[in-house]
Specification:
A hairpin with a 2-residue loop joins strand 9 and strand 10. The protein is globular and about 70 Å long. The two termini are about 15 Å apart. Helix 4 packs antiparallel against helix 8 and helix 6 packs across helix 7. It has a seven-stranded mixed sheet with strand order 6-5-4-3-2-1-22. The chain is of the alpha/beta class. Helix content is about 30%, strand content about 20%. The protein binds zinc ion. Zinc ion (ZN) binds next to loops.
């Protein structure tokens, strides 16, 4: 009998991994890293609950590390099968997995210096070489067409509108001549956002796994363009700079898109924009190339001959550390976009050291700021930050824009779910914190009257044909 086991993203938002077994074969959907608390991160180090050598295939919904970042580990531990991903997901993983390995190596070094590791010297979870080894097992699948994995499994990806290449999946399991359809939502994106398509609606499923990241709330409404224009124009009047900590994938491209539009509409002056993140630059190139993911607004801008919609008029790209340092010498109004998005590390820290003490400047927070990060401290009104062992006074303006999330808010999740013409026989809510999971369960039960289950970590369920 077919069955599914929740190896991650059960009761939490990270570590997405779902093992589907049928006809003696094993398919793993997503292979994400656990992130966040010490206990969650420890799971990355534990012996996996299923021997990776016994898994036959891995299928990915999208490139985010909480869906792919455990791949180097399972390959190291003996997984030898293909890793199925579409072209854009593959290209993003070529950047993100070595970067994740690099961060693991840095963490190990840091722990080594502090001397609180049980390993001597402390080991990274995986190395850049191990990430490269995993990337060799990637096999390209269609963006939006059915394909057969084996006699037991076939799949059809649909655009999820979350980041470039993101998909939700229809997985058809065939056992004893009978079929079972399982839908995996992956991460569901937003409606009416620039660059990417809206999430494609689902239509039917026997079993559904739905993410619940924002299952308890909606994003703030209000025009991103209006707010961004106000922030920029106010800062320019003061003669200051705008520092935007932004994750290299998706947030940076979204900001560039809005800046370009505001420039074209002459709602902001043409300012020098410094993109100070080598990864963001490479990701932007991938974003521009994959036309199959672009929405009609983006395509018409591009075909209108008005230039690259992801490029402002005066962009300066800082590839080297030297280029990055030179941005400190800029004393006239400018925009600096740099990672990391929550100001936990990366080049943005140097810009904060330089720009935070001056009330002329603005720090614009455009993504989710997790507890314990510099970004959250700024959001919560900290009067100073400790960066590189220095107390940096916060005199710059700090402004948060919550509208720019890449995840569907609660009502957008319900809108996506309303696509089902026939209720799924069982809905599993995953990829959410307990408050979000419970809130979405209550909403789904009230609005659709579907049976909903919130699976626990490592829990298994039989999948029956109808
Ligand atoms: Zn994601």
């Amino acid at each position: 009998m077919a069955k599914i086991t929740f190896l991650g993203a059960a009761g939490t938002v990270t570590g997405s991994k779902y093992l589907v077994e049928a006809g003696g074969k094993r398919l793993l959907v997503d292979c994400g890293l656990f992130q966040g608390t010490h206990d969650l991160k420890q799971r990355n180090w534990n012996n996996p609950p299923v021997d990776p050598a016994t898994i036959d295939w891995v299928l990915l919904t999208h490139a985010h590390i909480d869906h792919t970042g455990y791949l180097p580990r399972i390959v190291h531990l003996g997984y030898r099968g293909p890793i199925y991903a579409n072209a854009a997901t593959n290209e993003l993983c070529q950047l993100l997995l070595p970067d994740s390995a690099h961060l693991q190596e840095e963490d190990a070094q840091y722990i080594g210096k502090k001397g609180y590791s049980s390993h001597k010297p402390p080991l990274p979870l995986y190395t850049v070489a191990e990430a490269q080894a995993a990337l060799k097992q990637f096999k390209e699948i269609p963006r939006a067409a059915p394909f057969t994995i084996s006699p037991e499994f076939s799949a059809r990806p649909h655009d999820a509108g979350h980041i470039l290449g993101s998909s939700w999946l229809e997985l058809t399991i065939t056992e004893n001549g009978k079929q079972i359809l399982v839908v995996f939502s992956g991460d569901v994106g937003r409606y009416n956002q620039p660059i990417l398509n809206d999430p494609e609606p689902p239509s039917r499923a026997d079993y559904l796994l739905c993410e619940s990241t924002y299952g308890d709330r909606d994003h703030p409404s209000g025009s991103v363009a209006d707010e961004l224009a106000n922030v920029i124009n106010d800062t320019v009047k003061r003669g200051g700079a705008i520092v935007i900590p932004a994750f290299a994938v998706d947030r940076t491209q979204m900001i560039m898109y809005y800046l370009r539009q505001l420039e074209s509409q002459k709602r902001i002056p043409v300012l020098p924009v410094y993109v100070d993140s080598p990864m963001a630059i490479n990701v932007t190139e991938i974003y521009v190339r994959h036309h199959e993911d672009h929405d009609s607004d983006f395509t018409s801008l591009e075909q209108g001959g008005k230039g690259d919609p992801l490029n402002v008029r005066t962009v300066h790209i800082a590839r080297s550390v030297e280029d990055s340092k030179k941005i400190n010498d800029v004393t006239t109004p400018c925009i600096i976009i740099s990672a990391s998005g929550m100001a936990t590390g990366g080049r943005v820290l140097h810009h904060l050291v330089k720009r935070l003490p001056d009330p002329k400047n603005t720090v614009l927070l455009v993504g989710y700021q997790a507890e314990g990060t510099n970004g959250r401290a700024l959001q919560d009104g900290a009067k100073s930050l400790n960066i590189f062992g220095q107390q940096i006074p916060v005199r710059a303006q700090v402004i948060s824009m919550g509208q720019l999330s890449a995840h569907a808010g609660k009502s957008e999740l319900l809108r996506w779910l309303s696509g089902f013409k026939v209720p799924p026989r069982q809905t599993f809510l995953v990829h959410g914190e307990p408050v979000a999971l419970n809130s979405l369960r209550d909403a789904v039960t009230a609005q659709f009257k579907w049976p909903v289950t919130i699976p626990a970590y490592l829990q298994s369920f039989d999948l029956n044909p109808s």
